[in-house]
Amino acid sequence: MDFKTEFKPLTVQPQEIEGKSFEIITEELGEHPFTEQQYPIVQRIIHASADFELGRSLVFHKDAIEAGIKSIREGRTVVADVQMIQAGVSKERLERFGGGVKVFISDPDVMEEAKRLNTTRAIISMRKAIKEADGGIYAIGNAPTALLELIRLVKEGEARPGLIIGMPVGFVSAAESKDELRKLDIPFITNIGRKGGSTIVVSAINAISIMAAAQK
Amino acid sequence: MDFKTEFKPLTVQPQEIEGKSFEIITEELGEHPFTEQQYPIVQRIIHASADFELGRSLVFHKDAIEAGIKSIREGRTVVADVQMIQAGVSKERLERFGGGVKVFISDPDVMEEAKRLNTTRAIISMRKAIKEADGGIYAIGNAPTALLELIRLVKEGEARPGLIIGMPVGFVSAAESKDELRKLDIPFITNIGRKGGSTIVVSAINAISIMAAAQK
């Protein structure tokens, strides 16, 4: 197509913007409790939310990052609760290892089953996911019911995710679902409180996939 | 497929969860400066962010909501800066009026032109958008450069959006781009400060499309 409008520079070199943002974040965050390995995830989440409170509320299981890197390098599926996460994740780095993102929430069989049981599609989508994609990263940014169901499936020995990124947002069960997640002794990344969301979860996945791609 | 896992109820009727969340929001928000017409948008944004500060920072041009409803009912395109917005918006209500969501940022010609000019794809995507979809809603949740470029195009008389939803997030130019948007006398919805993001913008679009669908 024809880009007739004359070019007029603004701020605008993409790499420069990201670098400058990361500098500001490091400066304003100041002292923090995170390890060197955790910090890139914290930084990217603050970058995507402009929310230092949210950044400071992050909690990492001790094996979380290694498990996430391993899962990506083995080409395992990232299961997400909603399409927004699938749309936001940098697919190129996952695909390099043979992986990708799957979402089951809009599958016709999931919708039908949720209706039949008068429950959330999110719950049923987790039941489908563990049959189709056990062992990878489970990334939940929207539905507390999905996270609660996944926790139940783990406790009952039916699911063994490589890493759970559990940061649903909201006022009903979101904070509680994360409290439950923190009690599990399997790799997780979560936060304390009501905040969360798809953009936050996407940042975490992208940060881990950058680390996975950088490993020799 | 076979959902072998036995059903075990959690919280879980979808409508109940949303209703209960909205009650909590109204109670905790208390007094606020928003009109009856603006409030459903504020409420849905708080619902998607669990962030009352962000909710309180919203600013509406006086014609914003009427313009948004009109745009949707006329079936005009919603232009978004990133795919996450396209993935998150409830398409069914837009399609009922003949509309939909378009994103140009990953178009090959946009990527090529951005590279050639050493600028952001977001900027070039706005230049393409005004040629392909002028007059609808422009929804920007990620890239301040997209919003700044759109503002420039409006000022120079090259674009006449029906409504700008401008809530990019970030540390470089995000707050400033919103300051510029608030100076325009065309319909806009924005917020003060660095916060924003795709999930917030999606909430605003969905709230307006619910109003559009409810109108006789």
Written overview of the protein:
Two copies of one chain form a homodimer. With 216 residues, chain A is of the alpha/beta class. Chain A has a single domain (59-214), classed as Rossmann fold (3-Layer(aba) Sandwich). In chain A, 52% of the residues lie in helices and 10% in strands. Chain A has eleven helices and six strands. The first copy, chain A, has helices spanning 14-29, 39-49, 52-56, 64-73, 83-88, 91-95, 108-117, 121-132, 144-155, 174-182, 198-214; strands at 58-60, 78-80, 101-103, 137-140, 163-166, 188-191. A six-stranded mixed β-sheet of chain A has the order 1-6-5-4-2-3, sandwiched between helices. Mean pLDDT of chain A is 93; it is low at 4-9.
Overall CATH architecture of chain A:
3-Layer(aba) Sandwich
Within the CATH hierarchy, at the fold level, what is the topology of chain A?
Rossmann fold
Largest interface: A-B, 60 and 60 residues
Shape of chain A: globular
What is the CATH top level name of chain A?
A: Alpha Beta
Taking the sheet with the most strands of chain A, its summary is: 6 strands, mixed
User: Roughly how many Å apart are the termini of chain A?
Assistant: 41 Å
The neighbouring-strand order within the major sheet of chain A is 1-6-5-4-2-3
Q: What's the total count of β strands of chain A?
A: 6
**Quaternary status of these chains?**
homodimer
